[in-house]
Specification:
3-stranded antiparallel beta sheet; alpha+beta; 9 helices; single chain; T-fold; 8-stranded antiparallel beta sheet
Length: about 325
């Protein structure tokens, strides 16, 4: 009788320890997010997420006039927090690896060229040179007391090209701390995964947009499975122009080394990495770097990358690492 009772207790206990699927959605950092996670107990994420997003905004949002980064851009002396310092160090790392093509100080050039308009503004060489004085991540440093030092007061810094990826990494840390080991987080199209999709007992499956499809409709050009990995995609494929004479697709991008707005054939760059901050930064850089330079760096660093680029009137693909595996 006692053995039977013990068996029943063990069965009941095992049933109560089955992880349940929990989902959270919302808006943050100028975009939307979605979290699917499995845990034995209610994760109760809403308050923790709100506090995390508040910390990120206070540290690095250029849309909040009293954030640390806004005050720094106005020339104030600010002792930055650990979030800012991590973003600075990660940006410095990717800036070095990409030979300066990933550059969070390039915003002054983007604004000056008038990106997003039907036609770009025009500048002469002297005007471009005057702006380049304020561009270059090497012109920034952090003191031992966490104060950002700028070579020129007019330099502006903007972590928007990497901040979403970092936010995803922090959310992942939050979920792990709450004992969830199987989850998928999506923020503004970027993704972090841990474990598997328990409903299907398979790795998480994600997709990459098809550049041939524009407008509100979306189509997937490629799917891939992720486990304990992050993926970020940067794309100009919804902003491309078509040459009226040749019919070729191209996009304009800023070369932070020369300050010039140059045509680029790269329409989309997707990167898989252990963390999303790294994936985000590389994906941004590959939209700016010359295609052949990107290919060399990708092979040199052993990165998993999926590039979609225009070759005359055709779309071509360059893929490495995880992207070369067969889609399930």
């Amino acid at each position: 009788m006692n053995r039977l009772l013990l068996l029943l207790v063990l069965i009941i206990a095992s049933c109560t320890n089955v992880p349940t699927r929990q989902q959270y959605t919302g808006e943050a950092l100028g975009t939307t997010y979605s979290i699917i996670a499995y845990a034995n107990e209610d994760l109760e994420l809403n308050q923790s997420l709100s506090e995390l997003f508040d910390r990120l905004n206070q540290s690095m949002s250029t849309y909040h006039p009293q954030s640390d980064i806004s005050r720094i851009n106005r020339g104030e002396r600010v002792q930055v927090d650990s979030l800012f310092r991590f973003m600075f160090e990660k940006s410095a790392q990717i800036n070095s690896l990409t030979s300066g093509y990933f550059d969070p100080t390039v915003g002054i050039l983007v604004d000056a060229w008038g990106f997003g308009a039907e036609s770009l503004n025009s500048f002469n060489a002297a005007q471009v040179d005057s702006l380049l004085e304020f561009v270059g991540f090497s012109k920034l440093s952090l003191s031992d007391t966490n104060e950002l030092i700028k070579a020129y007061p007019g330099i502006r810094i903007d972590f928007n090209a990497i901040a979403k990826g970092y936010a995803l990494d922090l959310i992942a840390d939050l979920l792990v701390a709450k004992n969830s080991s199987n989850f998928l987080i999506e923020l503004g199209g970027e993704i972090v995964t841990r474990g598997i999709n328990l409903d299907r007992a398979k790795p998480w499956r994600v997709g990459i947009d098809d550049p041939n499809v524009t407008g509100v409709d979306r189509s997937i050009t490629r799917t891939i499975t992720l486990t304990d990995e992050a993926m970020a995609t940067s794309g100009n494929y919804r902003k491309f122009r078509i040459d009226s004479l040749t019919g070729e697709r191209y996009v304009h991008t800023i070369n932070p080394l020369t300050g010039l707005a140059v045509p680029s054939s790269v329409l989309s760059a997707s990167v898989i990495a252990p963390d999303c901050a790294t994936a985000d930064a590389f994906a941004t850089a590959f939209m700016t770097m010359p295609l052949e330079d990107s290919k060399r760096l990708i092979v040199q660093e052993g990165l998993s990358v999926f590039l979609i680029y225009a070759d005359d009137d055709r779309l071509e693909i360059f893929q490495t690492g995880r992207f070369t595996e067969a889609s399930e």
